[in-house]
Fold:
Amino acid sequence: MKHLALLLLALAGCVREVPLPDFAERHRPMTDDGLELSMVRYRARGEPAGRPVLLCHGISANDRNMDLDEHHSLARWLSEHGREAWTMSLRGTGTSTHPVDATFDDFWQHDLPAAIHEVQRVSGAEQIDYVGHSMGGMIVYAYLAEGGQGLGAVATLGSPTNLATGTLSGPAVVFLPGNFSIPSGSGAYLAAPFEGAIDDGLVARLFYNPENTRPEVFARLMAYGTADIAGGVARQLSRLGAGHFESADGKLDFRRDMARVTTPVLVVAGRLDRVAPAPAVKDGYRALGGPKEWLMVSQAHGAKAEYGHMDLVVGERAAEEVWSKVLTFFHGHTQEVK
Amino acid sequence: MIALLCLTLAAAAPSHRRVITSDGIAVALYRYGEPGGPAVLLVPDLGLTRAVFDLQGEGLASHLVAHGHTVYVVELRGQGAARQDGNRYGLAQMVASDLPAVAKVIGEPFDLVAHGYAGTLALAATARELKGRVRKVVAIATPALPEVPSDVARTVLRQGGDFLALTHDPELHRALDLLFIWGGRFRPGRVEALRAHAFGTLGPALSADLLKWLYTGNLVLEDDSTVLGRLQQYDRETLLFDGLLDGYASPEQCVPLKEIAQKADVHLRTFSRFELASEDYSHLSLLLGAGAADEVFEPARKFLEGVR
Structure:
């Protein structure tokens, strides 16, 4: 067993981590409850063309989801299109402080406000834009629903608010263990060298469509773009399986309160997303107060292949088929901000 | 062996009759199996024919007959064998006239298997025109909140909804595939067969009605009520199946039935390949796909028969 573990570790080390670009600036703001967050700033290249954009990853992930390498990087793409982009690692992920436990509430109550404040402080912008992938979108839903400020326009990519939509994964998340962290990041790191070895394997089936994302690219995401899931986060989000998107103590009903959101939101879903199926994402769209827009990325809407959960952020054609539409949405809502 | 084959074919062959509605239109009604079993009415989606339930002797119709049900399949006005003068009709008349006429012919209370947009109309009818006639409902990709159509759907419907003709169109047959077939898993030869037999003609008037329904999200019926209003009154115990890759009646349009129909007990099943499902399912593979018998027909039958 010990030898197998060593072998896996050795193989995992073969999946090369691509370093951040030279122009990336590292920042480490403090949250109001005393933890350090890891953030990276990508200055706008060329003529600045709008507000800074904060990018937040999903569950079991870290900031590298938004900047995997030169060719798969929403952060660098935005920077090349005149937007100052910032990535962040939530507590317990990446090189941010790893507390003993955390909840989803910690993310929207402490981490996101600290990250927004840091972008505002450094850039001088009063309002910033935001892109959240998966849970990163759910965090901003909760933040805005409970009165959070400072965001001019928002895009969420594959962010569910209700998993009781008829898939078996909905009821399954109810049984996520909540008493200890789930070693999903460690597992992904060890499994990374083998990704793509089996056609139609479980990882691809759940997370990406090989017609959009090459297995070797996804292997790198597994190697350095993943994180373990805190028990408290799993415990809180497991309630989505019963259709409840709420605070840990059950006192705040985020889904109900999303009707109060007046920040413009673009809600993006992938037709082949099996983690956050379209009905689960559309539920959030319907809950939002507006202004809001719905974008289904699918072949019926002009995409070259159907989009899985991670294709929205690391797909080969994501820049053309997803990110450009996010940027258009942001540009279209620039004037609304006072 | 030959005798057995003849017996099987005879059992599979439906009897066909024309049913004249209150406004004098003929709709086509097929009966599979002998009278006396629990009656089930199957309603194919708009622009499709009864072949979605019976493609060359295989499908949900024969599956239910094999388990003792008496199965009726209707082709509503302008659809399939009921196709004539299609330009005169509207979707509201299907609810007001066609479905009650069919219910009258069936006589006894029946279970309902409703497919696609026509299926939603049938669900709406249970609150009034079919009140007291329908027992349980299996809904297959029935949109409760129709949405603005995709470019592909818009293109297809703006052609007048002649789906059959589009199967021969070198450009648009791909659009038809994306809406109805793509992503489904079919046995060899089945896609060709369904292209030949399952696609019909919606007609310009019904296509225009459907487009209007999609753009507004609601449809006004003949008594000035709306489909959405009817669904809020809907109270039948329902098993709703959706395919993740349904490009025509996508799951996000169908799943809200559970929330809208507060009086109904709606059980949802959205297929996804990550789970145990053999495929993600498209609009037509839900009924004609390689896995449909095990993953759709059997759960549907058990639900109708009250087998847990």
Strands of chain B lie at 15-20, 26-32, 39-43, 70-75, 110-115, 134-140, 238-243, 266-271. Chain B has a mean pLDDT of 91. Chain B touches chain A at residues 150-153, 178-179, 182-183, 240, 242, 244-245, 247, 250-252, 254-256, 268-276, 280 (CB under 8 Å). Chain B has one domain: 2-305.
